[in-house]
Amino acid sequence: MNAVLYWTSTIAKSAYILVFPLTLAFFLAWAERKQSAVMQDRIGANRAKFLGRPFLGLVHMVCDAVKMFVKEDFVPDSGHRVLHTLAPFLAMFFALITFAVIPFGYQLTIAGETIGLQVADLNVGILFIFAMASLGVYGMVLAGWSSNNNYALLGGIRASAQMISYEICIGMTIIGAILALGTLSMQDLVIRQGYHYFGWLPRWGVLLQPLGFLLFFIAGIAETKRVPFDMPEGESEIIGFNLEYSSMKFAMFLFTDFIETVLIAAVTVTLFFGGWQIPWLFESGFVWPWGGGWEIHPNVVNILRMAAFAAKVTFFCWLMMAIRWTLPRFRYDQLMDLGWKWLLPLSLANIVVTALVVLLVN
Amino acid sequence: MDFAVFWIAAGVAGAAAINLIFQSKPINSVLSLVVVLFALAVLYLQLSAEFIAALQIIIYAGAIMVLFLFVVMLLNLNQDQFGSNRKPGLRSFGVLIGGTLIIEISLIARAFVSSSPTDGQVVAAEFGSVAQVGRLLFGEYLLPFELTSILLLIAVAGALVLAGKREEAQPPEERS
After folding, report:
1. What residue ranges do the domains of chain B occupy?
2. Residues sharing a CB contact under 8 Å with residue A131, sequence separation 6 or more, in sequence order
3. Residue A341 DSSP class
4. pTM for this one?
């Protein structure tokens, strides 16, 4: 591959995978208001107007951003100034860097060269995600500690205890998916979900790992620190690690949650819902299970697949939003009970059963 | 490119390690150690040991160092608590240990330099992959692997015993 194409494609891919979660997170912040309004039979955000129109409440988002930027950025005098500033950046960085290994499509052929639609094709991609997610804890712990406020410190420790507990469950359910599909590379995970049972039923991870999907999704929602697991961030009722934060740094913690929502949706889609795969769509076009087909140019096929990935991720973000506005919050002991006494034993059982089945089938 | 990555990672690791020693606040030392471990993971990646690099970050940077951070934060260790009750012989003991380590490392390094692969020699494509590490771990090195597992199991049992003690310490009338 020539150097020009290599660098332009790498930069374009990086830009896409950076802009994709940020844009989606922006719209999630909007959907947070608008969807809750619809679900609670309210009219919702409609006061801020541009040229006399509310634009479905989108103007509110712009106003919010302006408000966050111009607010006073307060750092407690007795706090650790450097770490206090670093903490929100760490939280956001580790959420965004994870997208580097997410395959958002298969490949495109440009000028005779094949470009894989993934920024970094590590052969341990899924472990990379797990590693970066485990580092996200630092953002919260340091935010709590550097504020030099006992309540913030308690909030930070409570939040990290929650995240570490549920990370274990995420790791265990990932093992089930790895066993069933037999690879750790994210792109291979998706490719191996491209087969069909009986010629029509797509072999997606959720069919191989129904329990694994459920456990991963629950633990994933806990990882994003949102309802029903939002003890760390119920900022209006419970004092959390972000107590001493204001202005844009506070907004960064909020925004990180939305990015993590997109991330959990993307990983769920990649592991359990065929990633960019579309049922019955192959490299040369659709092949209908009832016979016949529809030939499409390979590049068009792959653009369709990119769109399918984006659509699936958006669907799971919507689902998490709907859960967020449906369920009440868990109590802290219930949260720990659920994580350690239900999800962890179930995910361990899931590993044992999956390993047995894999052993018997092979 | 490889050359630049190596020197940047090695430089960061070295600088963070020196910072670790000279920082007066424990929390800064802990965070420096995180940076050291991170830079080492980059070096592992460069040696095409991707699996080991991922494990390095998950286990050391992601789990063990968070524990260190918890201890420092919860005990609220400060500079004054740290410097005053230092045992007098500690410094010379540290110099002794450190000196021995430097001699050991230089001996190992000399042995490696004389037997290192020449330029252009590359490792097998499979090297460092999960499959290969797994085969070695469950084949050739099964006994040490199982012994380590038992060690971890003992640690888990010990943690359970320690955590369970609180109930015994309660006065009998509160138990009911």
Report:
1. 1-79, 124-168
2. B54, B57, B58, B61, B62
3. I
4. 0.88
Spatial CA neighbour of A105 closest among A119, A120, A117, A93: A117
C-alpha to C-alpha distance for A13 and A120, rounded to whole angstroms: 10
- Give the list of residues 6+ apart from residue B132 with CB closer than 8 angstroms, or none: B126
* A153: nearest CA partner in chain B: B73
Residues of A in contact with B73 (CB under 8 A): 141, 144-145, 153, 156-157
pLDDT by residue for chain B (176 residues), tens digit each?
778 899 999 999 999 999 998 888 888 889 999 999 999 999 998 888 888 899 899 999 888 998 888 888 888 765 555 555 566 778 888 899 999 999 999 998 888 776 655 555 566 667 778 888 888 889 999 999 999 999 999 999 998 898 876 655 555 554 44
Amino acid (one-letter) located at B95: V
| Partner residues linked to A286 by β-bridges | A281, A294
DSSP A65: H
Range A106-110, long-range pairs (CB < 8 A, 24+ positions): A106/A187, A106/A190, A106/A191, A106/A276, A106/A302, A106/A305, A107/A302, A108/A299, A108/A302, A108/A303, A109/A298, A109/A299, A110/A5, A110/A9
Q: Tell me whether 0.85 is exceeded by the ipTM.
A: no
Distance, first Cα to last Cα, chain B: 69
Second-level CATH architecture of B1-79:
Up-down Bundle (1.20)
Task: Report the C-alpha gap between A160 and B66 in whole angstroms.
Answer: 9
Instruction: Tell me whether residues A135 and B74 touch, CB distance under 8 A.
Output: no
- Chain B, nearest residue to A133 by Cα: B62
Evaluate whether A225 touches A201 at the Cβ level (below 8 Å). Answer: no
